[in-house]
Amino acid sequence: MPFTDTIYALSSGALPAGVAVIRISGPATTEAITRLCGPLPRARSATLRTIRTRNGEPLDSGLVLYFPGPASFTGEDCCELQVHGGRAVVHAILEELAGVDGLRHAEAGEFSRRAFQNGKMDLVEVEGLADLIVAETEMQRRLALEHSGGGQSALYEGWARRLTHARAMIEAELDFADEDDVPGSVSASVWKDMAKLRGEIEEHIGQAGLAEIIRDGLKIVIAGEPNAGKSSLLNALAKRDVAIVTEIAGTTRDIISVDLSLAGFSVKLFDTAGLRETDEVVEREGIRRARETIGRADLVLLLSDNPARFFTGEAIPENVPIIKVATKIDRDDVSWLPSDADIFLSTKTGAGVADLLEALGSYLPDLAGKTSLSMPSRKRHVDCLRQASAALERSLSAEALGLDIQAEQLRVAGDALGRITGRVDVENLLDVIFSEFCIGK
Ligand SMILES: Nc1nc2c(ncn2[C@@H]2O[C@H](COP(=O)(O)OP(=O)(O)OP(=O)(O)O)[C@@H](O)[C@H]2O)c(=O)[nH]1
Ligand SMILES: [Mg+2]
């Protein structure tokens, strides 16, 4: 159903800026262009125009780009005005657009919503686009591009097509078994492919953890006894003075986190309160929060400035890897043996910090040789994939119940895949049947 409203908004970033891009989409786009910029420019080519008020007063001059629908981002008539990025300039142009009949300011995400509803993008591509806009690391960019560029959707659609094809074969066997053109026992090859498909989906689901690390970052928690040098290490890695450092044991109470980019990955580093028994109410709450954060860590850096006092208590879950870090090695009142810790560092002299970064790098996923980051990036995708896999499994194990029950589960699997992209398959099975065989000759 076409939208009646025409929407506009500033699509580029914070003002002031060298250039600002104002986007318009909807049926009254051409009217808005002619009102503000004179005769309609040639489609899809940048044209320099003066932008004027209804009284002919110039507001600015800039490039006008007109994209007639359906070959546009939203699928509707669209226009981009590239103007000078001053606050007053943009404000005046938006005011002028507000005065054109049928135009209103766009709501958040409304251009993309129209693109989805007009079939220009599917849900995975929309989500990928949102991720691409907020991507901060190289891996986040690559993952988002895989989704926004349609690579992921093509994979899911390919799987959905295989399911449809399998159902068509089964329907053929059920309905036209006595016809000569239907190869006998079609099912054997179908079930082989369905078993293979289930394996592919399961393998794909297995990549979800990696996608989570890329999207949300590897959670590294700095833990240890009070005064071990945890906050000093956070500041050293963040290269700024984020956390308070004092010689008083029990300085840090709240969880302090900083985001780092390490070898293209996002890393979230957490500084925590030193772990010890205490009656002090605020510190006790800090320690409770520290334990909670440690419980959700992907990796713990366990710090101590004394080999005899490495805290290895119950706070760290068994499956979480630990790097033991000896701190303040510049001091000569403590002597360390190589077996006492994994890394030896001093934030005062900077010694060992590079070793620690290298060690952290080895905990990042190894993507060597991976050219595409084809993996489910959201819980929503994983849920649908699990449903598809479970339905496939039910279909494969329902041999005794008959072909029609098996085919029904394949339909359920296909619908689950369709929900990921938002395009539930409504293909006519018979189309497939007739194109594969010449039944009905
Ligand atoms: N000599 C030396 N002193 C250090 C080093 N790193 C930290 N310190 C000192 O150790 C003391 C404690 O440092 P913090 O970083 O506050 O220790 P913390 O583990 O965060 O302490 P809490 O927050 O109380 O748990 C401060 O006086 C720091 O200046 C180092 O590499 N060498
Ligand atoms: Mg601290």
Automatic annotation (TrEMBL):
Homodimer. Heterotetramer of two MnmE and two MnmG subunits. GTP binds at residues 227-232, 246-252, 271-274. This is tRNA modification GTPase MnmE. It is an enzyme of class 3 (hydrolase). Its EC number is 3.6.-.-. The lineage of its organism: Bacteria, Pseudomonadati, Pseudomonadota, Alphaproteobacteria, Hyphomicrobiales. Binds 1 potassium ion per subunit. (6S)-5-formyl-5,6,7,8-tetrahydrofolate binds at residues 23, 80, 120, 441. SMART domains: AAA. Its cofactor is K(+). It is found in: Cytoplasm. Coiled coil: none annotated. Its main location: cytoplasm.
